[in-house]
Structures are given as C-alpha cells and as structure tokens.
Write a structure and sequence with these properties.
By secondary structure, the chain is α+β, with helices and mostly antiparallel strands. It has 4 helices and 9 strands, in the order H-H-E-E-E-E-E-E-H-E-E-E-H. It has a single domain, classed as 2-Layer Sandwich (Gyrase A, domain 2), CATH 3.30.1360. Strand 5 and strand 6 form a beta hairpin. The longest helix has 22 residues. It is globular. The two termini are about 20 Å apart.
Length: about 190
C-alpha cells in the first residue's frame, strides 16, 4: 500500500511541476530558488499512427508514440559527462521502475529510437504575456525553454543496465541546466 501511495505522490508532484511550469504559476518552492527540468522519453513509432517531431540540430523529422514511456519520475539521477575530446553527454540513471521499463521497451524494440524531450525554463521564468514578447526582449534574446534533445538508437540487445547516455542537441550551459533541474526534481520527488 505504501508503494502505491509513494507512486501516486511522485506522479502528483511531477504533474504539478509540469503543469506549473507550463502556465508560469509554479508553486513558490519550485520556481525561484532552483532550476527544475522535466523529461519525457518516447518510443519511435510508425508515421501512420504517430506524432511527427523535429529532433536534433538538423531538425530531422521523427515519429513518436503519443505517450512517454519514461519521465523524470523514473530517474534516480542525471549527470553531465565531459569527454576528453571536448564533447559532452547527459547520462540518465533510472530508479527500479525506470530500469524495468527501459529494459522491457528497449529489448522489444531493437533498432528503433528513443526520442528524448526536456523542458528546462530558467529560474523565475514566466510565460510571455503575448506571443513574441518576453519581458520586453526581442525574440532572439528569449531563452530556449524546451527541446527535443536526442534520438539515440536502441542497441540490438536493448538497454538492461538502467543507464542511458546521449549527446544532447543543447549547449553545454543548457545541458548543465537540464542536469541540475532533473536532479532537483528527483530530490523533490524523493522527499
């Protein structure tokens, strides 16, 4: 019974964080003091019954199954990995539920892609009052608050170690903000 109650609380907090960040009315304990980010990982689908999205720096059209298979509620931690050659990646480690789902989804879908979306508004960010104008700034100066980050291909044997690493379509600063935000939301969910 406690397991179901904890799972309900995790999804309730995640829903509040997602809805709150979407409408610009975050609860005070989630908005101004820390970065927060949300994450949704989708399975690649067939064009006939899926939603098209533009992924990566070349805006490649990919098709996603409408419901996310993993979210920030399935994470245990996120890490920014700086490689010696100057590249970087985000490494996601999943909790027990996330490991199970990742293993099941990837084992049964080798060769398909996991399509990763994140929402990462900066601290204190509010929805613009009117489209194209955020706090009097020209559109070019508006921070990017969400992105389709990557679409790593699922290996032949799936992913059974509970960890997913990918090179994001994000600047190093954005990647660091996403990692901080995900770890902050994981800490809130663990409370």
């Amino acid at each position: 019974m406690k397991f179901w109650l904890r799972a309900f609380n995790i999804y309730l907090l995640a829903a509040v964080a997602v809805v709150g960040s979407g409408c610009g009315s975050n609860p005070s304990h989630l908005s101004a003091k820390k970065d927060y980010a949300t994450l949704s990982i989708f399975m690649e689908g067939r064009p006939a019954d899926s939603t098209p999205v533009q992924v990566g720096p070349y805006q490649t059209t990919m098709y996603i199954v409408p419901d996310a298979v993993l979210t920030e509620a399935d994470l245990s931690k996120a890490k920014l990995v700086d490689n010696p050659n100057g590249t970087y990646a985000i490494e996601l480690s999943f909790n027990d539920h996330g490991k199970l789902v990742l293993d099941m989804q990837t084992t049964s879908n080798p060769g398909k892609h996991l399509i990763i979306f994140a929402k990462f508004p900066p601290r204190g960010w509010k929805e613009p009052a009117e489209e194209g104008a955020a706090a009097g700034k020209p559109p070019a100066e508006q921070p990017r608050i969400s992105a389709w980050l990557a679409a790593p291909m699922i290996p032949r044997n799936g992913i059974s170690n509970g960890s997913l690493q990918f090179a994001p379509d994000a600047t190093h600063a954005e990647a660091a903000q996403i990692v901080r935000g995900l770890n902050n939301i994981v800490a809130e969910l663990d409370k």
